[in-house]
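Progress against Task 2.4 (sequence-to-structure conversion) is shown through the following example record, which the project officer requested during the mid-term review.
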Amino acid sequence: MAKHVVADLREKCGTPASLLRDVASEIADEMGAGLEKEGGSKVKMLLSYVDKLPTGREEGLFYGLDLGGTNFRVLRVQLGGNEKHVVNRESREVTIPPHLMSGSYSELFGFIASELAKFVADEERCTNSTNGKKRELGFTFSFPVKQRSVASGTLVKWTKAFAIDDAVGEDVVAELQMAMEKQGLDMHVAALINDAVGTLAGARYYDKDVVAGVIFGTGTNAAYVEKANAIPKWEGELPNSGDMVINMEWGNFYSSRLPITEYDQELDRESLNPGEQIYEKLMSGMYLGEIVRRVLLEISLRSSIFSNIDHTKLRTHFLLRTPHISAMHHDETPDLKIVAEKLEENLAITNTSLETRKLIVEICDIVARRAARLAAAGLAGILKKLGRDCTAQKQRSVIAIDGGLFGHYTKFRECLESTLGELLGEEASKSIAVKHADDGSGIGAALIAASQSQYRNVE
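Structure tokens generated for the chain above:
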């Protein structure tokens, strides 16, 4: 019976190239519809108001604050201009207490500001570190925001594990600015971006051919550079550069062609945002371990493969995390010892046979492979929208990718890269590059703050 469950899962998670090309085309179409008018697409296509990306000439000391998951990072970056680029970079990662992820807006931002104040206090041991200038901060806020300028925007909704009702509609920057002032921080928020925009900016600083920044981590999103005159819903004057970074918010993409199983449907129904973020729920780090757990529970209920186990842990939502399935998926020990350890540590499943452990590795492979191939379809969709997916296009195009899923889950990354090549074809693939932009979203925030600095014209 267990093998039947796995065979059924493999069939329902199938992602043939023909299906993926259809998904890529639909994503490109949805991008166009989202640019045409507000609410025209499930892919929101939000204007970032970032029309100045880093050039490599920026100089000075800038800060970055990166909030997007269960942790946030604060960074301090010293830029040295054309010759030196990033002279020095320091960062600190802070875990957000779980109660603040469903508490009040002011409590969350108060905690963030207090940690930022501690980080800044370390710098004050250095004399003249700011040369009398007001400190400037780039804020990476990885949730849907309706922006009104490069440094202001209201929260549309929380995603991932956040559920703070009193925050929707509030100005994100104003709240952070207020929290910093309460901590005595004399700091100006020069830019509000999300992690995908930050990844794009961080990579563009070193490589002018970067056209998109993508996140595959706890959640997923993408941003890319669009010609401003191709945005009908643009309400102001066209920026001088003629370019505009678009925050896609593609996690909310949906298509009837997506290979959705009963496990995905149950996960969605029981989530904080049922009916939303379907694309994200199929392929981001927050959900892959949970999908595998649900499959294992179904197997345990329909067979005796795990003997007479106590189902308490196996019934606990999100107890099995994506790092756990990555470890099992990559297990190369002869007896799959790591698989046995992870099952015992996390789900209280003991005394499994080698055959059972092999079956579990297969489940991890099915779920991760589906995720990686759907992710590749998304990248192909962006390239298609930009007209860079065909053999006639010889211009080099780089997609920068950040996030723990891409950075640490080797089989996911390898499958994504090979699938993108499969979808584009050998000739078109020659002009396309995928780069890992480690910590791109964090340093990108500081770099955009530098490119938007109130002191840049004075210098």
